[in-house]
Amino acid sequence: MNSPEKRIYLDHSATSPLHPSVIEHMLPYLTRYFGNPSSIHRLGVDARRGIEDARSRVAAAIGANPEEIIFTSGGTESDNLALVGAARALKEKGNHIITSLIEHHAVLNTCRFLAENGFEVTCVPVDEYGRVDPLQVEKAIRKTTILISVMLANNEIGTIEPVAAIGAVGRDRKICVHTDAVQAVGKIPVNVDILNVDMLSLSAHKINGPKGVGALYIRRGTTVLPLLHGGHQEKGIRNGTENVAGIVGLGRACELASDELESRSILLGRLRDGLQSRICEKIDHIHVNGHPLERLPNILSISVMSAAGDEIVRHMDRKGISISAGAACTSQSVSISHVITATGLKEDFARGTVRLSIGYGNTEAEMTLTADALAETVQKLRAISELESSLGKRRCS
User: How many domains does the chain have?
Assistant: First the structure.
């Protein structure tokens, strides 16, 4: 097995490596500026200054005001705070929530929790590309609907959802709208006003920031009740001593992602398209998942006939290449992804689904090596599958 230094890393949608500039900005807050940001002495004031500077950087990246940014421990907490916090705040107005079948589990499982606690949830379907139809969302609205949550871009297949249109529906009906933009921020332009959303979740470690920190945008005038109870941090919406160094890292990561958005998007798209072309040339009986045009520039999801996704990942890992079997959060499960199931892909293809996600540091040469390794892997697995099938038939005869 290749050493970690020589590996080809194509699992950036699961987590991404820290950008050197992010590390540089974080280090002083791990050493020199170690004070509690709630303290009024100099070290506390210095820590607070770092947090507020980061808040401004995060807000600028999504077109928000700094006071509308609440720091959290990551995308999952942001999603939970948005859905549970808003649902509880709005329960006197109704108890119905709308989401989609292909949301991240941080949203789906939170909706399941709410459904077990007096709320009603409608999951709208998607088309073969994993796209939600805004008309389906509009048709699902009831008099008791209080919240709509549809992700901006899917973490498994990269499809970009028509959130602006969905948000407009919610705004017309005076319904609170949330979007999970964890995968979208830093890959495509994100502006909360253009998207017509009241809440938006994002995470640092998807954009070359540190793990364990994220943010929730809450539009001014939107009421969200806290999940945690303690001090007064983050306007009392997210209590607990802030992860100062992590927050500073998130701020710098957002700033870099915003400043380099166009060039990054072009580079990632070129690498992804080149990788896709090579793979499709070398491997037959393959299906490319997601929308052909409305998709993130860095995600390539493919489904291969007669080769299990988890086995492809293991064989590629032995070759020194890190990829994912669908979503990293469920990669240890052999069941077919709920996202792939929702698109209606046939089972013989669906079981061979893998995700290759490109990011900071990847090169054209790595795409060539990856395509060659994947073709070799699929050929080997198909040969094994064919042999096992042949032996099975002989035993039955």
Answer: 2
